[in-house]
Amino acid sequence: MSNSVTTSPADMDDASVSIAVVGRKLPRRGLFFHKNRRLFLGIAGVIVFVAVWQLLFVVGFLNPVLVGSPAGTLESLVNLLFVKGTIWPDVGASGLEFLLGFTFGVTIGIVLGLLIGRFRWLDEMSDPLVSAFYATPYVAFLPVIMLTFGISLTSKVIIVMWAVFFPVLINTIAGVKNTPREFLTLSQSFNTSKLRQFTEILWPSAIPYVLAGLRQAVGRGLVGVLVAELFFANNGIGFFISKASGSYRMNDAFAAIVITAVAGVALVRIVGFVENRLAVRWGLSTKG
Predict the structure, then answer these.
(1) 263 and 196 together in one domain
(2) Residues 133-142: contacts with CB under 8 Å, at least 24 apart
(3) Residue range 99-127: mean pLDDT, rounded
(4) What three-state secondary structure class fits 142?
(5) Domain that holds residue 39
(6) Tens digits of per-residue pLDDT, 257-281?
(7) DSSP letter, residue 179
(8) Same domain, 147 and 199
(9) Which of 60, 66, 115, 264 has its CA at 20 to 30 Å from residue 274's CA atom?
């Protein structure tokens, strides 16, 4: 008799994590490794990267004046976060900019995406504008934003919102357009209101696409924060990196980069967790 070990959609990681055991039982240690395969391989990848990074310093390929070293970066991380704690005001400033820009960008992107995806005339009217603005790097608008709003929180929030808005908008439109037409036809035959069509048919259908857009928006939003702070700011992680690099404190600059990278990974993982929970609860298939 064959025994099978199956996983829920939340635990699935391609085909490698869905384990079929035929005629034998896997040891607990082996089963634990397979269920956490991505985690262990990810840690191994980080270790290899850091080892190569350090090796390049040992052989003299990298100049410690221009590039932070792994040991120096780790020491700076400890000092900046725990010993001196001098980076926390900058982390708080960047976090606020990201939170506000991300919230506004996601909210506006979802609302407009639902409307554009539902009404064909609105889709045809907005398509050239969406394509043009999405293809244009938002960095090109930085001088206009700076001259209009100055070096303020508003200008930085607008840049983050711009970076976040389009991935969410485009994915939401795609989700609405992929709603099975028979669902809408059936709802119309029962005289279902437009509001209920949005809340009970279009929105649930678009959720997997929206979550895929959120994963893209997290990275773009963090880039937007750094770009805004590099160009016009007097605080924040981007400003800290610029100031540290300008004074050749490369270990401090790399420590700030590591903090940004860890925050990005954590945010993407949170979105993935929510996506998997919805997949389990509602039987949704995730996109992207």
Answers:
(1) yes
(2) 133/166, 134/166, 134/170, 138/162, 138/163, 138/224, 139/227, 142/227, 142/228, 142/231, 142/232
(3) 95
(4) helix
(5) 3-63
(6) 999 999 999 999 998 888 788 777 7
(7) S
(8) yes
(9) 115
Residue 166 and residue 105 in contact, taking contact as beta carbons nearer than 8 Å: no
Tell whether 245 and 103 lie within a shared domain.
yes
pLDDT (tens digit per residue) in 63-109: 988 999 999 999 999 999 999 999 999 999 999 999 999 999 999 99
* AA identity, residue 282: W
Report pLDDT for 35: 81
Same domain, residue pair 37 and 165: no
The number of folded domains in the chain is 2
Residue 76 lies in a domain: no
The residue type found at 22 is: V
Residues 152 and 17 in one domain: no
Helix ranges restricted to H, the chain = 28-35, 37-58, 70-78, 88-118, 120-135, 142-149, 153-177, 181-189, 194-197, 203-231, 237-246, 250-282
| Helix (H/G/I), strand (E/B), else coil: 19 | coil
Convert the pLDDT of each residue in 47-68 to its tens digit: 999 999 999 988 989 998 899 9
Q: At which residue do the structure tokens 């400003």 appear?
A: 239
Spatial contact of 149 and 155, defined as CB atoms under 8 Å apart: yes
Q: Report the b/e string of 95-124 with b at 16+ CB within 10 A.
A: eebbebbbebbbeebbebbbbbbbeeeebe
pTM of the predicted protein model: 0.82
Those residues with Cβ within 8 angstroms of residue 160's Cβ, 6 or more apart along the chain or in another chain? 97, 98, 100, 101, 102, 105, 221, 224, 225, 228
Angle between helices 70-78 and 250-282 (to 10 degrees): 80
